[in-house]
Structure formats: C-alpha cells, structure tokens
Amino acid sequence: MRDTRESRLLLVLLIAIAFALITVDIRAGEESPVDGARQAAAAVFGPVEKGVATAVDPVAHAIGAVRDSGERHNRIAVLEKQNAALKAKLGSDDQTRSRIHELDEMLKRAGAGQYGIKGAEVIAIGAAQGFSWTVTIDAGSKDGIERDMTVLNGDGLVGRVSTVGPDTATVVLANDPDFTVGTRLEKTGELGFATGQGDRALSVQMLNGKAKVSPGDRLVTFGSRGNKPFVPGVPIGEVVKVDPSRGDLTRTVWVRPFVGFSRLDIVGVVVMPPREDPRDAVLPPKPEAPKPAPTVTVTVTPSGSASVPGKPADD
Fold it and tell me: Residue 56, by phi and psi: left (phi above 0), alpha (psi -120 to 50) or beta?
C-alpha cells in the first residue's frame, strides 16, 4: 500500500475500530457481541495452533529434561558436599580423640583457675580480616560474649575478644604485634609486660632490671582492673632467653608461648572471672628431671688357676 492520505485515514479508522471492539468485549464479559467471531477464529486457527504445539513439544521436553538433569546434578553435588562436611565434622578417630583431649585440658585449666568459660570453635583465621593475628570464633553476643574478654585453651592464653557480633566474635591473638599483657613470673612474682612478635617468641619487659630470671621460668597473666581484658593466672609461656643485665631500669626476656597459634581449634572465653587470684595454680606441674641411670662397674679379677695358651696348666 502506498503511503497516501487515504491510507493513513484508513489505518487510523481500523485502529479506532479495534479499540472500540476491545472496549465492548471487556465491558460485556461473557455476553460479548464479538464472542461468536472469537469462536469462529478459534475453529479456524485452532488446528494450526495444535499442530505447531505438537511440533514444538519435543523441543520443550528436551529443554525441560536438560534443566531437570542440571537440577538433579546440583542436588547430587549438594548431597556430596553435605556428606563431606559431615565426615569432616565427625573426623577420624585420631582427630576426635585429639579434640576430646583439647577440651579436657581446657576444662582442667578453667577448673584450676575457677574461671567460668564459654566454649567455642575457631571457624576462620585472620587472613580474611587484615594483616593482624586474629581468629573468628562461633560464639557472639547471643552467647554472652563481650568485648575485652580473656580467651584461653588447654595450653594457656590465646588472646582477647576485640569485636563481637550476634553469632561470632573476633579474637586478637597474644602473638599479635599490637598485643600487650601484664605478666607475673612464677614463684618470685616479678612483674612485666609481654608484647607479641608474630611467629617469634614474645618479648617481655621486666619492670625490675635486676630480676633473677632463668631459661625455663614460666609466666602467667597478672590480670587487669575489673578483670578486663585479662583475668589473672592464665599461663603465658616459658622463658627461652634472657638478655644480659646492663644496669637498666628494665630487663628484656624472651618467652615461648605455650599456645600453638597456628593450630587453634577449641577455645574458651572467660565469661566469669575467678573470685581470687589463682596465682600459679593454673600452671601444670613441671616435669621431673630424669634420674641418671645407675652406673654399673664390673671388676674382673684374674684367677690363679687360669691356663696360659701354649703352656701346660701345671706350669
């Protein structure tokens, strides 16, 4: 059709008629005057639609089959992951025994110090949270965890709670370079301040520059005002090196922490401090030095009747 004035008027007229029929059909409902025309159109075009639908159905089924297959594959993958997670959670017998031992040792330390603790599991390490030495535990404010609470395990001081969420909390480890805790030397009670050194021994500044300190001496936490962030008596570590005294007001010693920060698993957050300072009660007994084996001396006395080779016994 050529684009003329008459063709444009015809197009406008057809559009107007179409809108009018649609309006009448909607308002009339089931008694629409165009219902007969609709039925006639259905009778004409119905077989064609059915044929097209029959031709398209196999493709639709194939697409559905592929989609269902993908969903089944996803379900299988999910089940496999769940099984793997369950196996990992149960662990081997050796791992289970190891975790039971860790829990038992932690409860012994808590009992010796009269600490009220909330058990938790380490679920993430600090690489995802920055460059500091931190871990995330699966206990938070819903479990009574608060900021600046002491964290320990069966070996000793782990760190302190730095941030708290509803279900998790972040713990700054005692070997973090920004971590400082007051210390007290076993037996003598000499005080100092320990600072984290990453994967090296802790640096401890003894307040008394003339303090008698030797390798093998052990330190515990001195405690903080109001028991936050540190309760007293938690084992810290063992002295491995003592810098020579130069007459300074302070003295530096190097302490190997009892806790292995790279293999943390089960920890306890001290939610209730002890009624009194446990002093050295939380430290395990020192192993006894092995007794030297008795020396057996065998004395051989020559016999007068012994014969000399090559000579008769009578000679």
Answer: alpha
